[in-house]
Specification:
mainly alpha; Rossmann fold; three-stranded parallel sheet; two-stranded parallel sheet; 5 strands
Length: 329
Amino acid sequence: MKNRVFSGMRPTGRLHLGHLVGALDNWIQMQDTHDCVFGIVDWHALTSEYQDVEKVNRNVVEIAIDWFAAGLDPERSIVMIQSQVPQHAELHLLFSMIVPVPWLERVPTYKEQQQQLKEKDLSTYGFLGYPLLQAADILVYKADTVPVGEDQVSHIELCREVARRFNNFYTPVFPEPQAKLTKAPKLPGTDGRKMSKSYGNEIQLSEDPKSVRQKVLTMMTDPARVRRHDPGNPDLCPVFDLHRVFTKEQGKEWAAEGCRTAGIGCIDCKKRLLEDLIPVIEPLHEKRVKLENNVAGLKETLFEGSRKARVIAEQTLDEVRQAMRIKYT
């Protein structure tokens, strides 16, 4: 038996290079070594976007297109929509009966998100309870492993505590899942800050090569390198951060040496990056165009994945109901 993996993404819009190297590349590799369930967690999107539900609906399709174009394979993984598997909600409700409120209030991202999203009214139970819903997402499949970034480790620890509390109160049902940290660095956007849709500095997976080229050629570089003959520092250059991820070793060495000695200009450096970045983006763009022309088929794939997920989730809920003595047949 392979270890089971669960991971998901909120449908907040089209994905960018940061999602590819920070999550998707890892997921795609895990399809060959693990029993994988990947979820488009649309209920989680509602915790902050509950006033704009049309956008959430549209983004479910957008994120699925990006996933399949990048290489997630519904023949090797279960790819599902959270709201199509109501067992997530039932398990979340049952967990809410046994989990103390202070456990949720101490999750670091709870107060951080409230401060960052001051324009939104986040004083809802849904926002407070979303780490508990996340625990239900993971435990309803009895996942052993959850690939996450460092900012999500506290959520996985809460999930482990919830599993432990349930198992101690009733009958051991759930494993205590382990976080699998992604090794990829945070990618900078075109303005040097972390690549993010909220900053408008992202390079999307859906962009055509012409658009990618234009964005890279206008990217911010080492601010100390004002003139062509000024030496630069690759360690301070956002473009070189992309070189580290996408450029082959010989090209990285050439770019670093040329920058430090002023042997090359910033445009030369960017053009070298594009030689290795465009071959990554171009196939994704081409696959995406084909998927966009068959949205009905894509939705059927998601519905079939959700059906498979419901079978697994219902088996877990049957054990949970029995353990809690609320199974009456």
